[in-house]
Amino acid sequence: MSPKLGVDTLQDFIALAKAKPGTLNFGSSGVGNSIHLAVEQFNAAVGIKAVHVPFKTGNETDTAMIAGEVQYTIASLATSLPLIQAGRIKALAVTGEGRDPALPNVPNLSESGLPVRIPDQLFGMVGPANMPAPVTSKLLKAVADMQADPAFQESVRRTGGVPSLVHGEAFRNLALSDSQTWGDLIKRLGITLSS
């Protein structure tokens, strides 16, 4: 959130945005990417009408927020955390299930009174269907070993991530569920590559 907006809570931001429909801008690093869709999901859930301003990168979005050219986004902590910590942009809520370890004083959406589910950004490894079991086992062990490495865990946490290991059918179901959520949102809002 741009500090120039002058709000300190998510509820205050929502009230301000509803009082000025279509006048606030939100930024993302491109049309149809996960940040754009997450903000659209949030806007639809809370009843905000705003203008999308696509940039090429998250860093450009952050710069525009600092300048007050866009008022808000759902930022990736990997790039925005230092700016939040320096007070150059303001975090009003986090989208995960609990509080983010990198921002322990920032409430999550449900703590802020919003029953909005924003799918988490996932980074995963996939392979061709019917991969031989020995290959799958070897890859899973390599990922589990990497996941257990304290240096890897610290690296993930330092950029605002939460290391977790989801595999097999659970990972497949999560990916399919998120794909359905985003697909429905794209259709409902009529988002196209030329939006």
Question: What does this 3D model show about the protein?
Answer:
This protein has 195 residues and is mostly helical. It has a domain at 3-118: D-Maltodextrin-Binding Protein, domain 2 (3-Layer(aba) Sandwich). Helix content is 46%, strand content 4%. The protein contains 7 helices and 2 strands; from the N terminus they run H-E-H-E-H-H-H-H-H. The protein has helices at 10-19, 34-46, 58-67, 77-85, 133-148, 150-158, 168-189; strands at residues 25-28, 51-54. The chain has a two-stranded parallel ribbon with strand order 1-2. Helix 2 (34-46) links the parallel strand 1 (25-28) and strand 2 (51-54). The model has no long low-confidence stretch (mean pLDDT 86).
Topology record:
Layout lengths: L9 H10 L5 E4 L5 H13 L4 E4 L3 H10 L9 H9 L47 H16 L1 H9 L9 H22 L6
Parallel strand pairs: 1-2
Overall pLDDT level: 86
Number of helices: 7
Strand order of the largest sheet: 1-2
Q: Give the CATH superfamily of the domain at 3-118.
A: Periplasmic binding protein-like II
Q: Under the CATH scheme, which class of the domain at 3-118?
A: Alpha Beta
Q: What CATH architecture label of the domain at 3-118 applies?
A: 3-Layer(aba) Sandwich
Query: Which strand-content bin applies to the residues?
Result: under 5%
Taking the sheet with the most strands, its summary is: 2 strands, parallel
Low-confidence stretches: none
- Shape, principal axes of CA atoms: globular
**What kind of assembly state do the chains in view correspond to?**
single chain
- The CATH topology of the domain at 3-118 is D-Maltodextrin-Binding Protein, domain 2
Q: Compute the gyration radius: what is it?
A: 18 Å
Q: State the end-to-end CA separation.
A: 23 Å
The helix content is 40-55%
The H/E string reads HEHEHHHHH
Topology, number of strands: 2
Query: What structural class results from the helix and strand content?
Result: mainly alpha
